[in-house]
Write a structure and sequence with these properties.
With 551 residues, this protein is α/β, with parallel strands linked by helices. The chain has a domain of 233 residues: FAD/NAD(P)-binding domain. The protein is 35% helix and 19% strand. It has 17 helices and 20 strands. Helix 6 crosses helix 9. It starts with 19 loop residues before the first strand and ends with a helix.
Length: 551
């Protein structure tokens, strides 16, 4: 059994090379664990191979400064699918999620701020302080986004129709299309706008106040190396709207014990159902014979045989690094090589001696705004400049920062009276130019200093309160968690990389070009975030194929 926050304990077992598993899973991130749990529940023999010393991928918790623990990469909860939570009995396996006291807090200047609470009436009142017209438009905007989010929710747990897949796929595509055609004309126009427009353009049609538009536009650039004026960012905004916490739509929360509590609960479920989890097991290549995946080989030389292989790593890296060049055609390999990656994100954790004291909302005693998502990005222009700076100079001179202080909700993360904060930062180039590189630790340190100074300008005690920090550049995110170019979604969420085109057209049904090799991570439909949905859907398709193989 796996202990929360601790490496999995290995059980005595025969040498794996001596047996043939039904499925070998590459990567013990949350989607790989979900895939394993569903397959094991169906009676399949499953082994999960995780290269790191702890299971969980990017959703882990660790001590980064003596006495201070925090989620390392992924950092907040909302998109985790309720069906996955229920099917894997994550609450029984120790998961507890609490919601933020308020949604978000935007410091604007020395005296003004926007505090967005939960509850429609409270949100409308907060917006009315900036624009009465925008407050009046809020009900229609909320309703429109909820209708669009419901369309997405209806597609989340479905396998996309696969281009070139024959009659069965044509029927599946017609079924999905019929549901969209069943929408009235206004909602069809709404979806077209959301899938094609920029966040700024979409929001211009709803609101007038720049601070209100920036507050909503922030979700459109999260994990996306783009300006709010970039076409396609309206969809990224929508992608962050279909979540819930404890049955409450649109709410964001915190897993007690950090994000590692989610993956530890998933690992307990998978192991209880019979799956094997191996740590420090780095995969060197996918083995194939006769045009079919037959197992994997570890860097140690050990061979693990399997009837099927599922990859919870980015499809771009899978095809580039682990699949033999002779196993697929050059054209297909090039299609995967062209997958667009790169979030433009930078991740930090800091240990704090005290809570930040914001000039616009003073006080160092815990208050609701300390438990919110604290966003530095007060105008559309600010969000745009952050991107343009990064395109030109490698990083933003005034970065967009989302700060969470989970220790206000979870006392297990820091010593009494002290705190930990997560800082999720936009924008940085995945690859610096003009002789600079993220391989030089000084580059990451310089930008980390700038991030702290950016917060300190809004909360002047912040810099002095920092006791220690953990810094992850895009290169660190790739090397440690297998996120190509630091892409938190495994592949960008553009229109050309969604639904039937995710990860590439012709391979959207979780089946790779190599028979018996499957995609089960965020590079598959419906994309990134800690949802568990790609793992859920991939397991279903693997089981279908295993049944057919037996027949």
């Amino acid at each position: 059994m796996i202990n929360n926050g601790a490496p999995a304990q290995q059980k005595a077992q025969p040498r794996m090379a001596d047996m043939i598993y039904d499925v070998a899973i590459i990567g013990g991130g949350h989607n790989g664990l979900v895939t394993a749990a569903y397959l094991a529940a169906a009676g399949k023999s499953v082994v999960v191979l995780e290269k790191n010393a702890v299971v969980g991928g990017a959703a882990i918790t660790e001590e980064f400064h003596p006495g201070f623990r925090n989620s390392v990469a992924s950092y907040t909860v909302s998109l985790l699918n309720p069906k996955v939570i229920a099917d894997l009995e994550l609450a029984r396996h120790g998961l507890r999620i609490v919601e933020r006291p308020v949604a978000n807090f935007w410091p604007i200047d020395a005296t003004r701020y926007l505090l967005m609470p939960y509850g429609f009436a409270n949100r409308q009142q907060a917006i009315a302080a900036f624009s009465q017209r925008d407050a009046e438009r809020l009900p229609a905007y909320d309703a429109a986004l909820e209708r669009a989010a419901n369309v997405l929710r209806g597609l989340l747990l479905k396998t996309p129709p696969n281009a070139g897949g024959g009659l069965a796929e044509m029927i599946r595509g017609a079924s999905a299309g019929w549901g969209l055609l069943g929408l009235d004309l206004a909602d069809q126009r709404l979806l077209i706008d959301l899938f094609t427009k920029s966040a700024a353009s979409f929001l211009d049609g709803w609101f007038e106040n720049d601070h209100i538009k920036a507050a909503f536009a922030f979700d459109g650039i999260v994990g996306t190396f783009a300006s709010p004026h970039t076409p396609g960012t309206a969809y990224v905004l929508l992608h962050h709207c279909f979540g819930e916490v404890n049955g409450k739509p649109g709410v964001w929360g915190h897993a007690i014990g950090g994000m590692g509590a989610i993956t530890q609960a998933m690992a307990r479920c998978a192991e209880e159902r019979g799956a094997k989890i191996r740590l420090n097991a780095t995969v060197a290549k996918v083995l194939d014979q006769g045009g079919r995946a037959t197992g994997i080989e570890l860097t140690s030389g050990e061979v693990i045989k399997a009837r099927a292989v599922a990859a919870n790593i980015a499809p771009k890296l899978l095809m580039q690094d682990l699949v033999s060049p002779t196993a697929i055609t050059t054209e297909t390999r090039n299609a995967f090589a062209r997958i667009e990656t790169g979030s433009g994100t930078f991740r930090m954790n800091v240990a704090l001696s005290e809570l930040p004291d914001f000039t616009c909302l003073p006080g160092k005693s815990a208050a609701p705004h300390h438990g919110a998502g604290i966003v530095i990005g007060p105008t559309i222009g600010y969000l745009d400049r952050a991107y343009l700076d990064a395109r030109r100079d490698g990083w933003s001179a005034e970065p967009v920062v989302e700060m969470l202080i989970p220790s206000t909700l979870d006392v297990s993360l820091a010593p009494p009276g002290q705190h930990v904060a997560s800082l999720f930062v936009q924008h940085v180039q995945p690859h610096l130019q003009e002789g600079r590189s993220w391989t030089n630790p000084a580059e990451a340190a310089r930008f980390a200093d700038l991030v702290i100074e950016t917060v300190d300008r809004r909360a002047p005690n912040f810099k002095a309160s920092v006791l220690g920090r953990q810094v992850l550049s895009p290169l660190d995110l790739e090397n440690r968690f297998g996120l190509p170019d630091g892409d938190i979604f495994h592949a960008q969420l553009g229109l050309g990389q969604l639904f039937s085109a995710r990860p590439v057209l012709g391979h959207a049904n979780y089946r790779s070009p190599l028979k018996g090799l499957y995609f089960c991570g965020s590079g598959a439909h419906p994309g990134g975030g800690v949802t568990g949905v790609p793992g859920h859907n991939a397991a279903r398709e693997i089981l279908r194929d295993l049944r057919r193989m037996r027949l």
